[in-house]
Amino acid sequence: MKQPSSAPRSSGRRVMGGRGAQAAAADPTRDIAFDIVSGVIEHRRMLETSMENSPAAREAEPRDRAAAHRLGASVLRHMGTATEVLSPFLKKEPPEPVRAVLLIGVAQLLFLGTPVHAAVATSVALARRRGLAPFAGLVNAVLRRIAQQGDACLEGLDQERLDVPPWLWTSWGRMARPVAAALGMEPPLDLSMRPGCLPPPGGEVLPNGTVRFPAGTRVTELPGFSEGEFWVQDAAATLPARLLDVKAGERVADLCAAPGGKTAQLAFAGGEVTAVERDARRMERLAANLARLGLTDRVKTVRGDATQWRPDVPLDAVLLDAPCSATGTVRRHPDAMWIKRPRDLAGLAAGQQALIAAARDMLRPGGRLVYAVCSLQPEEGPACARAAEEMGLIADPFTPEELSFLPQARTAEGWLRTHPGLWAAQGGMDGFFAARFRKA
Ligand SMILES: C[S@@+](CC[C@H](N)C(=O)[O-])C[C@H]1O[C@@H](n2cnc3c(N)ncnc32)[C@H](O)[C@@H]1O
Known about the structure:
Layout: E1 13-14, E2 25-26, H1 28-41, H2 47-52, H3 55-59, H4 62-77, H5 79-86, H6 96-111, H7 116-129, H8 136-149, H9 159-162, H10 166-172, H11 176-183, E3 189-193, E4 204-205, E5 211-213, E6 230-232, H12 239-244, E7 251-255, H13 261-268, E8 272-277, H14 280-292, E9 299-303, E10 315-321, H15 335-339, H16 344-362, E11 363-373, H17 382-390, E12 394-395, E13 416-417, E14 433-438
Parallel strand pairs: 7-8, 7-10, 8-9, 10-11
Antiparallel strand pairs: 1-2, 3-5, 3-6, 4-5, 11-14, 12-14, 13-14
The protein binds S-adenosylmethionine.
């Protein structure tokens, strides 16, 4: 069995004067988790969006929201295995909402270590609260039988294979198994340090300088957070800006910039940075992060579409961290595996190539572009790098020296390819593709 995440508290507070014993038990954790799971599997909405849309989440305490997030994410991490476990107990496919209730029950029983009584009773109550009373008996019977068998239900199952949708497994090739193995673990908290600041105590310093804390660490409670001594950034996410190798005084654009981790790197390297971001709310987050890091006066921010924006003067360097399928972040966002479909990739790649063309037009002759995506999909990585060359950009491969601390991430072409199975013993990293080019 994979490493379990921490179990949700068994809520179940009674509401005085309720309509009936089970229907009246308030259980915001499972209510929100139900909205999350249904939002992802029925409506193909992102986990975070499903949570924002959840009426129960709006009124819930932060700790109930956090527990629901953990429970919902656990269902999505183990969805293939849980579906396989359920199948012998179901004569026919249940309606989607019933399936969501059952998956929440199985995740608690087999992956979160929730006591059997709590897992079964809360799932039956959840079914009733969600207008699924005719299925309450089914939920009760199926979960009781699974609880009786316990871990024996998992024997002989290739959980890693089951928990990745087949089309993604195929497209990931040799990365598939290590990525799937990493899915069972909550990712650690990674920090990038402001130059000159000492890491908070207790962190492990990785070979690239990232300071790593165990999963579940609350960043706002670490000393130095309010003072802007660090920002949250996965170890792999630090690499594209580092590989742009910005020198003091260079004119640089960070396209698709929010929430601003890479903007901060470029500014601390001494670049005259313009950060371009299209989304108003994400721009607010970028501005707040820059303010906390004391960078407000050192970065110019532009809210707009990077395919349309052009600098007044041609640039020395551009970092393009393009919007993508985000399959490289499946450890943090397991919903990405269940939302995207193969047919979405062509549209994403077209958008990425439009952004590459715009970036090319922003550069002075000899100027540098690093193109990056947090995706494991070949259509968004190598295929876009080849398209960049067809647009007249000249490949500028990363050298072995530049990636000496992570040689296994350097491809034969001199591109960067990270995935969650790298540095596995230290907690892994996100999946990124990056390539560097020069303008003729
Ligand atoms: C992968 S995230 C960027 C993460 C960011 N570079 C960082 O390191 O913190 C992609 C961002 O691109 C923005 N975006 C998408 N299309 C854009 C466009 N055409 N112009 C500007 N920003 C865009 C999205 O709103 C999103 O904030």
